[in-house]
UniProtKB/TrEMBL annotation:
<dbReference type="InterPro" id="IPR015886">
    <property type="entry name" value="H2TH_FPG"/>
</dbReference>
<dbReference type="Pfam" id="PF01149">
    <property type="entry name" value="Fapy_DNA_glyco"/>
</dbReference>
<dbReference type="GO" id="GO:0008270">
    <property type="term" value="F:zinc ion binding"/>
</dbReference>
<keyword id="KW-0479">Metal-binding</keyword>
<dbReference type="GO" id="GO:0003684">
    <property type="term" value="F:damaged DNA binding"/>
</dbReference>
<dbReference type="InterPro" id="IPR035937">
    <property type="entry name" value="FPG_N"/>
</dbReference>
<dbReference type="InterPro" id="IPR010979">
    <property type="entry name" value="Ribosomal_uS13-like_H2TH"/>
</dbReference>
<keyword id="KW-0326">Glycosidase</keyword>
<dbReference type="Pfam" id="PF06831">
    <property type="entry name" value="H2TH"/>
</dbReference>
<keyword id="KW-0234">DNA repair</keyword>
<dbReference type="InterPro" id="IPR010663">
    <property type="entry name" value="Znf_FPG/IleRS"/>
</dbReference>
<keyword id="KW-0863">Zinc-finger</keyword>
<dbReference type="InterPro" id="IPR000214">
    <property type="entry name" value="Znf_DNA_glyclase/AP_lyase"/>
</dbReference>
<dbReference type="GO" id="GO:0140078">
    <property type="term" value="F:class I DNA-(apurinic or apyrimidinic site) endonuclease activity"/>
</dbReference>
<dbReference type="Pfam" id="PF06827">
    <property type="entry name" value="zf-FPG_IleRS"/>
</dbReference>
<keyword id="KW-0227">DNA damage</keyword>
<keyword id="KW-0456">Lyase</keyword>
Amino acid sequence: MPEGHTLHRLAIDLTDAFGGSVVAASSPQGQGRFEDGAAQLDGRELIAADAWGKHLFVRFAGTELVLHVHLGLYGKLRIAGADVLPDPVGQVRLRLVTTDRSDGRVTWADLRGATACELLTPEERDALVARLGPDPLREGADADPDRAWARIGRSRKSVAALLMEQDVVAGIGNVYRAELLFRHRVDPFREGRSMRVGRWQEMWADLVELMHLGVAVNRIETVRPEHEAAARAAAKQYEGGRRRRSGLSYVYRRDGQPCLVCGTQVRTEVLVARNLFWCPRCQPRFRSRAQR
DNA sequence: CGCATATGAAAAG
DNA sequence: TTTTCCTATGCGT
């Protein structure tokens, strides 16, 4: 589930679990891909983790190098604790372990399937962050919607495509994109430059709230209270008694099903290699003055 | 059990 | 535009 909220939540959880502690770092089944990196971190105190967009950074004492993790589509970083450290399962690229001195309990974090797991110099980290857009989950100037507007307001690309570009807004993924456009009744295919700045400011403010909620509950929840009952009922039909893992959604992965607001069939189409979902009635095709 | 699919992004061609 | 990374889940058999 790696959209921005996932990485910010992991940064919090990593800091809570390991911050101020000396960690053992290893790359048990990393097939040699991060053994050197793990060795450089082994035995150091973990200071803190933070995130920018979908990128996670972890700082350690006594080295300038910063651990950089990007989960990609299916990477996972799992943090857990127990009396006994379990054997690693699967391709564990990085394992961090800390042992409580008083009771001997262990806390560990296993990283699997990540697109990036590497050590960066401060310069490399800065260069990486420099090519990312503002992140709704960061504070102050790091979360400046005007920077995103400078790109969106002048672009001929579709809003749907722009929202997925990490140098426009950092942290949005396919779910937040589809749901944000629906919540604001925006036609995904309209050009960025056809938008008005006021609309973008509303969308950004909403995004800040939605993503903070996502961090708090550790999943993407986008359905307004007044539509929750309908969303739950609709989701139930497809659950078949199983426990629902993902959050409720208006349009994401609901293609062919009736829109929760107007009943029209939700549509899907591949746009820039990703599945886009929208309601053709709630998000009608935008026509510019020239087209009218 | 096997197989298709997924919330991403960079490299290859 | 296609391939790669190679995890976890959900579904059909």
